[in-house]
């Protein structure tokens, strides 16, 4: 079985890593951990270069985003391998739009299952922001497991 685990370092993706680490899989299961870092100019609405130099700011932000993504997949891989030594784990980081990059990597990898965390936005926020997990679930050619972060607040 081939599983693509898409993470972004948030508590929601940490919940997805934890959930996946608790599940049992056949001994030949491959898990590819993907973290997508976005172009900081494209990821920040209203910010665009107007000419001139940003003094290396853009390159530094992109470099930091890449390093963070690499650290996220490294930590997730360690956690998965510590809990299930039968898993074959690979890591990948890419620059792009998360919705598209996840679907592209799932197709390239031949994923039979995509695992993502859900930020749990309400319907209005989902409409305004778009939902990576929702988009992946609708457009993926394979099954998608959307993991919600457990609510740790006491219900009143």
Automatic annotation (TrEMBL):
This is Universal stress protein. Residues 2-148 form the UspA domain. SUPFAM superfamilies: Adenine nucleotide alpha hydrolases-like. It comes from Croceitalea marina. InterPro entries: Rossmann-like_a/b/a_fold (IPR014729), Universal_stress_UspA (IPR006015), USP_A (IPR051688), UspA (IPR006016). Belongs to the universal stress protein A family. It comes from the Bacteria. Pfam families: Usp (PF00582).
